[in-house]
Every structure is written in structure tokens, then in C-alpha cells.
Amino acid sequence: MSDFHPNERDLVRRTYIQRGPCQPVDYVFPKTQNWIKERPFNVRWYDTWKSWLEYSVDKDVAFCFIFYLFKAENTAGGDAFVNEGFKSWNRLSTIRDHVGSISSALLKQTVEIKNAYHKRLEASVTAIRWLLLQGLPFRGHDEKESSSNRGNFVSLLTLFSEHDPEYAKVVLKMAPGNCQLISPVVQKDIIHACAKETTKAIFEELNDGFFSILADDFVDISDKKQMALRLRYVNQKGEVCERFIGVVHVPNTTSLTLLAAIESLLMEYSLTFSQVRGQGYDGASDMQGTINGLKTIVQNECPQAYFVHCFEHQLQLTQVAIAKKNFDCALSLGEIETGSGLNQERGLGRPCDTRSGSHFKTILNVLNLYPTIFESLDAIAEVSDTIDSNKAQSIILLLMSFDFVFVAHLMVSIFGITNELNVALQKHDQDIVNAMSMVNITKTNLQKMRGKGWDSHMDKQIYIISELKYLLVSLIFNCKNLKIASPRLVRNYLCACHALVPLINRFAAFDKSKLLRLATFYPKEFSSSELLFFQHSLENFIVSIREDERFWNLKSLGELSVKLVETGKHTTHESVYLLLKLVLILPVATTSVERVFSGMTQVKAKLRNSIGDQMLNDCLITYQERDLFLNIKMNDIVNCYQNMKTRRDQLQ
């Protein structure tokens, strides 16, 4: 059997098995001299060893049908029944001993096949794992052996075989033709197994606790509307997590369609709206409409799913409004852009209304490249035709005007104050209490600039004050923007949240009454009877925390949550820790959802625009949650792949 090519051996074996062992009966067997007496082959031996004994008429010897088909080259013993043949008809004990050799050889052959299959599967999983982490495509246009570029997946397997002798023995052309584990179906199954194990790790972190939902919609490269969903929760270590659980293709972005998509994703992982304690969306009407908006429908099912309008989105809308209100500066910034290199560190890309911080970056780059811009425009005016020359000269005059220079520096000052808030709101572990505190700091700095920062701008004081007045009015994150239930309820809720802020000076400003009022916003978790003794729980909690020096230097609610878990006090003060988690899971910004769409442009690029919805979802889960995916064990992925359906080869 070793004379045949590895890819042809299975076909040869099946052909031989269909024919069965060669066992002639109506034949006069010649006698062979065995010691003193001549003996022929005994035809009755067929009845005893019918499954494996065969006789060669040409050579007058007996062979082992099973050993010929399945004996490995490096397996010791049994060569007389494979190579030269057996004809010592007087040594019946040798034939009986060979029966035991068949059983052991088949067992060893089975173990070797399983080991080779496991090694081959490990190679495929390792290659796919690396491609998933990088967001790269798998298949090539031409994957034939004669091709110089067989695609990333096959190329990685080739690389493994060239540098690892163990892989070289079992992958690609050294594997059986029907079990190379490189087909598109196998690739998709392994990818799905990777995604399933990653989501399994996410829900082990969630541990059936409360969570908030963050959703947003996006049109991908193939003009399909996609909705991405993230969950914000506190894990078993007390850390705030925002995890991506799936993307769904939606035919439209109406509130009912989005609700059905979110519900289908939650039900897929055995989650319900009864566990939702917060919602975070952008400012679109289908998301936060008061009548038929998504947040209203969800609140009807779960009144405690409080809605928070994305802080980052509000800040961006304010900055865009200010940039557009300064018409001269906005006009010139819109006119100046490069044809390529829009993402360079100091490029002059057009500021985008939906890209956070783009206006601030563009203004800074214009001021940094001010002389270079003049030189470029001057050169354009000299060598271009009349239309382009006139346009370049008009931009030069605009850039040289006092209004442009004055407003540009004014916007740098304003955006410089708000930029720290802008950056902080993009952090996935940001909590609503810290975000509200930073909003107040930003408002204070803007008010300070308005009151004392105009000595160098006295001649434009009236103009500047009117602009700053507009900014301050827009920056106030009042009750109309933070729509949880009603304006009065919002004010009370945020006031109660601030009771958790004073972590410095050993909780010197701790206010028990505000925390009791905060607990009333969650009647399902804190019933009227539980509220009666909750104040005593708060008293015990504050005494315990103030006396423990491990809690003296905390800076945020997130650190308090982690420290409670580390010290085991989260079980001692269970009700207080529950209230802390409910505040921490409230969403602050939806930037983590927007990062999913940034990853989608990598996973579903122009050359992969026909990728299926299921594979897109699986690739995005492993790409977005790579920190969890990296910790998934190889055996877990292999077992998930094997148990997905009945496989040709089994590992057990």
C-alpha cells in the first residue's frame, strides 16, 4: 500500500474492500515440502479466518488482507503475511498468533490516524485564529498547487509545514484527499467555533447579571444596513466591560425593526429585556423618539431600562454647530483639502460632522501649516488656469483676513477646553458619574474663559460673548438631552448619582439620604420593605470602608467596584454593591459601537463585499473581542468544532 500516493490510498482500500479477500475454493492446492511431510493449503482455514486470510494462486502463499491494506510502514511484525507471504502450512500456531497482531495493529493504526487528524485540525485552527485576529481574508482566487498565491489560509499552512516537521507530515498534500481540512465549509465551521467560544466567555463574565444595551446602525461596503449591539456590564472582578455580541442585517432602520433585531440577538444567548438596566443610542429620531422611538418601546417593556443620550454625540453636535456658525472659518476649512493622504498626522482632510475631534484637528493643522498653505496656494495661482487661479487667490485673501485668524484661534481655545472631555467620553469603561463631573468641569472652564479671557480680544468682545453664549447653552446637558423618564426624574436621578462621587478624604462627603433616593429608582431590586433596612446597610458599609485603608486612595467608581471584589466586601455589603453596579452599567457614550463599524471596514472590505452575514458576524466577534479570543484554549475550539456536527474523523 505504501507504493500508492497518499491521496490515492483511500480509493485503493475501498476498491479492495469491495472485492474482498482472494479465497479460491475450487482449486487444487499444490503440496509444499514442510520438514518431513508435504502439506497443501487447507481450504477449511477460510471458515476460521474468513475476514482476513487470502491465498495467492500464482505464488502459492497466504497473505493477510487487513495488514496489506492498513499496516503502517513503521509497524513491526506481520511482514510474512504482507511482503513474501506465508506458506509454512504445518505451523498453524503462527496463523493463530497473527490474529492477535491484527487487533493490536488496527488499534495502533486507529490511534495514529486520530493523532494525525488532531494535529492537522490544530494547524487549521492556528492559521484561522491568526487571520481572524488580523481581520484578513482567508481564501485566494486560485488555490491550486500550481498557483503562486493560494490565499492567506493555505499559504499559512504551507509555512507551518516548512518550519515544523510535525505539521509537514499531516497537512496539505500529506493528508488524505478527503480530510485535508482546507475546504471553505471547514473554514466557516472553525470560524463559527471560534466565535461561539468567544461569546461563551463573554456570557461567563456576565453571569446572568444586569446589563445595558448600546446599539447603532451602519451601511457597509455592499450598501447593506447593519445593526451592531454591545452589552455594558460589570464582570465578576468588578470591572466595567463593554462587549460586542453581534451584528444583524436589517432591511430598514425603523424602531420596530431595530427592536426585533436586538430581541433576536438577546434571545439567541438566552437573555431578556428584564435584565436590561440601561440604553445608549445616538440622537436619531428612530432611536430616541418619545412616541415610537426604540428607547420608548424598550422602556415600555422594562421601565428601569433608563436611556442616556450618548455624551460624545452631544458634544460633537455642539462642536459642529459652533464650527458652522463661524462661517468664514468653516468656509475656508471646507475649501482646503488634499486629494490624497487625508489621514496623515498633519493632513488637511475635510472635517467630518460624525467624526469626533475632526474639527479641532483640522484647525490645529491649518495653523501649524499656515506658511506652507500660503506657498502652495500662491504656486497654484501662478501656474493654474483662470478659474483655479482666481479661486486660489480668493482663499489666500480669506486666510489673510483678520476674521479668519481671530476666529481660528478662538476655536482652538474653545475646542482645547472641550477636547479632554471629548477624549474621555470615548473610553469604553467610562461611568456616568465621572462623565457628568467632567461635563461640569468643562462648563466651569468655558465660563472662566468667558469672564476673564478677553483682554486680547477687546475689540471683538461683543461678537465673542455672543458666540460663547451659544456654546454654553448648547453644552448644558439638561433634562431634554438625557431622557430617562421625565425632566424632574432626571434631575433627581443625577443628583442621587452624585452621592457616589465623593471618594476622596475617606468618603467625607458621603450622603446616605441621596443614596436611599437613588435606590428608589430600582423598585424591582429594592422593594419598599428592603428600603427600610437599606439605610442600616449603608451605615455599616461606610463605617467598614472608612476604617479600611485599602479604600482611601480610590479615584473612581470603577476602582471602588474592583476593590470591593478584591477584598470580598461585595458579598458582605451585597445590596450596596448591587446599587453601585446599576450605576456603573449606565451607558455614557456609543463610541465602542462605532468602533465595530471601523472594524467592519477591515473585515468586509471591497474585495470581500460578498461575505455572508453569519461569517461576517463571527469574524467581527473574534476581531473586536480579541483579548478574550486570545485566551480561548485550543482544545475548546477543537471540541466545539467536532461537536458541531458528525465528522468523518473522530477524536474519541
Summed up, what is this model?
With 652 residues, the chain is an alpha/beta fold. The protein is built from 28 helices and nine strands. It has helices at residues 6-19, 45-48, 65-70, 92-134, 152-163, 165-168, 184-206, 255-268, 285-288, 294-301, 311-325, 327-335, 358-368, 370-383, 386-400, 402-424, 432-452, 461-475, 487-497, 512-519, 528-547, 557-567, 569-572, 574-584, 591-603, 613-624, 626-629, 634-643, and strands at residues 31-34, 37-40, 53-56, 61-64, 211-219, 225-234, 240-249, 276-281, 307-309.
Unreliable sequence segments = 327-345, 456-491
User: Distance between termini?
Assistant: 26 Å
Structural class: alpha/beta
CATH fold type of the largest domain: Nucleotidyltransferase, domain 5
Q: Tell me the helix content.
A: 55-70%
Cα Rg: 37 Å
Question: What is the name of the CATH architecture of the largest domain?
Answer: 2-Layer Sandwich
Strand order of the largest sheet: 7-6-5-8-9
Question: What is the number of helical segments per DSSP (H or I, 4+ residues)?
Answer: 28
Describe the sheet with the most strands.
5 strands, mixed
What does this structure look like?
With 652 residues, the chain is α/β, with parallel strands linked by helices. The protein starts with 5 loop residues before the first helix and ends in a 9-residue tail after the last helix. The strands form three sheets. The chain has a five-stranded mixed beta sheet with strand order 7-6-5-8-9, sandwiched between helices. The chain has a two-stranded antiparallel ribbon with strand order 1-2. The longest helix is centred in the first third of the chain and has 43 residues.
